[in-house]
Task: structure prediction
Amino acid sequence: MDIIFHHPTFDTQFWLDGMQQLIPDARVRQWRPGDNQPADYALVWHPPVEMLSGHSELKGVFALGAGVDSILSKLQTHPDMLPEGVPLFRLEDTGMALQMQEYAVSQVLHWFRRFDDYQALKLQAKWLPLEDYRREDFTIGVLGAGVLGGKVAESLAAWDFPVRCWSRSKKNYPGITSYAGNEELSDFLNGTRVLINLLPNTPQTVGIINSQMLNQLADEAYVMNLARGVHLVENDLLAALDSGKVKAAMLDVFAKEPLPENSPLWKHPRIAITPHLAAVTRPQEAMEYIAKTIREIEKGESPSGQVSLHNGY
Ligand SMILES: NC(=O)C1=CN([C@@H]2O[C@H](COP(=O)(O)OP(=O)(O)OC[C@H]3O[C@@H](n4cnc5c(N)ncnc54)[C@H](OP(=O)(O)O)[C@@H]3O)[C@@H](O)[C@H]2O)C=CC1
Ligand SMILES: O=CC(=O)O
Result:
């Protein structure tokens, strides 16, 4: 079995050695421009078109992340990049759900205990106990209730917050109210105090967090964008912060990354920023997952994690 690997920033040797160890009879190589030798599996992030194009012998392509929007958008301009019938897989959790839970829970608790207000008071040297927020006024709404959104919702429900989620199909997560489809979006938003985004980037979700959505949230709402920058209309968020409709935001992802130095988001006192690291690929977990999936494919099984090219995620 031949496995080819391409990632613009990962430690390639670490991955080649790791995959070799997990699948000892495989020949694992770094793909380099000009390499047109056949392969059974490809592990990729931002793959050059020629790496995959024409390789209909591939039994699977693995994206080395959870979101496959960069690959799918390249497919729009280079439809032959992924030969027809070659399945595309993505990372399902592989250690990312726990990271997302840490990020979301810590920030929700930060807002709920009003640490942002106390930090502002501290800067004015003001000793001023504020009224506690009540859990019943702190409904958390998670946009996207898949592998990561579902786990984030679960971890917040464990802290006894009222939690709801929104997805395409109805969910049955214990203690979480599920809303599905565009027809239930307004009900989902109505009363949501903390909005957490974990949707994939698809034509249906681009720009979804806009004025219209923000205006339907509870007053003094909080917004956490952990999915993709293109989901959020940044100027609409700034307007909602200025009007007071939104009290604060925590952003991990941006329409343009790295976020340009002159972006007004940097200077806004009620916006917190992290540089797209809410959940990073954990190499060992990812390799174990890929090796397991390859074994399942080799046995003729249908492993989970296959991307629906039709749905775009
Ligand atoms: N900031 C970071 O560091 C990271 C960000 N991400 C981002 O998180 C995203 C989510 O990852 P993951 O949970 O694994 O993805 P999943 O595919 O498991 O979940 C996606 C969820 O979104 C729902 N959904 C998709 N389209 C729509 C729509 N049009 N309307 C309503 N709901 C919709 C799906 O509904 P249904 O369940 O019905 O299919 C599903 O519940 C990734 O695509 C990626 O962009 C991922 C990792 C790290
Ligand atoms: O944003 C990261 C990913 O894995 O998707």
Remarks:
- The chain has a mean pLDDT of 98.
- The pocket of LL5AMS7Z (ligand 2) is lined by residues 65-67, 281 (CB under 6 Å).
- Residues 73 and 202 are 9 Å apart (CA to CA).
- Residues 96-112 form the longest helix (17 residues).
